[in-house]
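Q: I'm writing up a methods section and want to include an example of the input and output format. Could you take the sequence below and give the corresponding predicted structure tokens, formatted cleanly so I can copy it straight into the document?
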Amino acid sequence: MANFSKWLTNLSYWWILAGFLAVMIGLYFLFGIWPRTKRVRVQLLCLCGMDYVTLLFYLLTFNLRVSKLAAEAGATPRTMPRLWALLMALASIGAFFAIINPENKPDEKFNRWVFALLVGVGSIFSVILFQYIGYYLSSAIFILVVMIAMGERNKLQLILVPIIWCLFTYFVFYKMLFIKLPFGSLFSWLIK
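A: Here is the clean output for your methods example:
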């Protein structure tokens, strides 16, 4: 598994993006086959897109360095992302059954699958931007763009939600778990 993760890390982001698009297009047609999933295929695509990104993050944890002291303590840089991946998997299972429930509202008729696909592609581009502008700024921009695309117009929420998310991840990862998230090559001079 570690070799696969190392291969994945060295793989070009563009191939990961192409793989994401191929998987999502394949799932779109696959969900169209069964009547139970056809009426909610956009909702399922959103769920699968989040799971795809979660799987990528999980696989990347195999390349995180683990110090002997951290391994003895039981909490390593791998702990939080893997816990997050486990919780996402459990939440996805529950969400899947809630989505395919016959009482659930079917997808809207105005091609929301395009929006789902764009959010998934946007999340991949957000990860690509980590190396240039860092996790915090990239995540804030991604959250802001998705909120605007979803129709949020409250300016206070548009400002506060990305900032609160960045502060939350900063305190959880950097202050509590001592995990440095990517700061970006454009801002690397700030941390020297």
